[in-house]
C-alpha cells in the first residue's frame, strides 16, 4: 500500500502539521516528518477534515443505472470529500431483502471509492402495508442498521410503531420521510404566497410537522431510535427542540439545498428546483441554520437524488423531485456556516458516523486513527459546471454558481481516491 506524507496541513483549522499515512492509518503527526518511501502531498493552505459521511444518498442501482450507478455515485462522493455514504432503499427492485442490500454493498466494495452502507426498506416494496425483512437485512453481510421508505412516508402509525419496536433488538434506527400523504395530494411546491402566485398546488409545512410530532411520541413510547430525514420547516425545528429536551432518542438531518435555496426559485418553473420536501421560505432557512448550529438538527445530509434527463427536463408537474448534492455539499456548508471546521466536522462526519454506526469513520486525523480524511482548500472558489460533475446525471440547482472551497484530496483507509481535485480511478 502506498504511503503518503501530507506536509504543512491544518487539522480542523489548527496550526500546520505533517501527517504520515501508512498501512491504512495515520501513522504519525508532527512537524518535520520524513518518509523517503512516501508520496508527498503539499498541504500548505489546506485543512484536513475527517472523511465526510452522508446519511442520505440515492445511488439508483439496481434498476435506474441510466441516472446513477453505485460506481458513479461513489466517485461523485469521493470528489465531494466523502469516505462513506448510506444508500437509500428506493431502487428497483427495492432494497427490502437481504439479497438486494448485499448486492448494493458488494457493488460499493468493488468500486472501492467510498464505503457504501445500504439502508433497508421499512416496508415491502415501500408500499407501507407490511414490514420488510428487517432482521434478515440486519443479519446480512451488509449489516443494515438504518431502515427507511424514503420517498414515501410510513404513514400507518401502527406499522411505524412495529418498526420502531423491531429495530430495538439490534440497535437499529428508523429514518422517516415525514410527509402526511393526505395533506400533499397533487402538491407541487411549498404552500405559500409563491405557490398562489404561480398557480401550483401547495405542500403545507404541517404535513411534515404532524408526522414528526407523531413519530417522536411513538419513539418516546417505545424507547427506540428515530431519525428524521430532510427537515425543512421552522415548525419541525420546534417539535424536535421539545423532543430533545424530553430526552427522546431522535436525530435529524437537513439538506444543503434547504439551507440555501427558497421557494422563490420555483418562479422560473425550472424543474431542477422541484424537490421533496419542497424548497421553503427564508424564515424556514433561518430556523434551520440556527437549529443546525445549536445541534437541534444533528447533521447535514445531501439527499443526493440523480435523475435521467427525461425525468427532469420536462414540464414542472411531470418532473421527478430531487437534486444532486454530493459534489457541492461541503461548499454549501462553508457558504452557510463559514470556516467553523470543528462544527463542519461534527455535522458532516462525526455525528452521521455515530448515527449510522460506522465505527471506522468520523475520526480526526490523529496517530492511530483510520486514514479516512479529506483535504480542503478553503481559499479556492469553484464555478459549478454540470458537465464536469462525476454523477451520471446533471440535475444540480447550483449550475454556474460560484461556491467556496475545493476538495483537493480524499483518502479511504489510506488509499487516495482523489488527488489534486481529480478522481484517482
Describe this structure as you would to a colleague:
The protein is an alpha/beta fold. It folds into two domains: 101 residues, Urease, subunit C, domain 1 (Roll), CATH 2.30.40; 306 residues, Metal-dependent hydrolases (TIM Barrel, Alpha-Beta Barrel), CATH 3.20.20. Helices cover 29% and strands 22% of the residues. It has twelve helices and 19 strands. The strands form four sheets. Strands 1, 2, 3, 4, 5, 16, 17, 18 and 19 form a nine-stranded mixed sheet that branches. A five-stranded parallel sheet has the order 9-10-13-14-15. Strand 13, helix 7 and strand 14 form a beta-alpha-beta unit. The protein is globular.
Characterize this entry briefly.
This protein has 425 residues and is of the alpha/beta class. Helix content is 29%, strand content 22%. The longest helix is centred in the middle third of the chain and has 18 residues, at 205-222.
Low-confidence stretches at least 5 residues in length (pLDDT < 50)?
A: none
Shape annotation: globular
Summed over residues and divided by their number, the pLDDT gives a mean of 98
Distance between the termini: 15 Å
Core attributes:
19 strands; 12 helices; TIM Barrel; single chain; Urease, subunit C, domain 1; globular; five-stranded parallel β-sheet; 425 residues; 2 domains; nine-stranded mixed β-sheet; alpha/beta
Topology diagram in text:
Layout: E1 4-11, E2 16-22, E3 25-30, E4 39-42, E5 47-50, E6 52-57, H1 70-79, E7 82-87, H2 98-111, E8 115-118, H3 134-139, E9 146-147, H4 157-167, E10 173-176, E11 189-190, H5 193-198, E12 202-203, H6 205-222, E13 226-228, H7 234-245, E14 250-254, H8 256-260, H9 282-294, E15 299-300, H10 309-312, H11 329-337, H12 341-356, E16 373-383, E17 402-412, E18 415-419, E19 422-423
Parallel strand pairs: 1-4, 1-5, 6-7, 7-8, 9-10, 10-13, 11-12, 13-14, 14-15
Antiparallel strand pairs: 1-2, 2-3, 5-16, 16-17, 17-18, 18-19
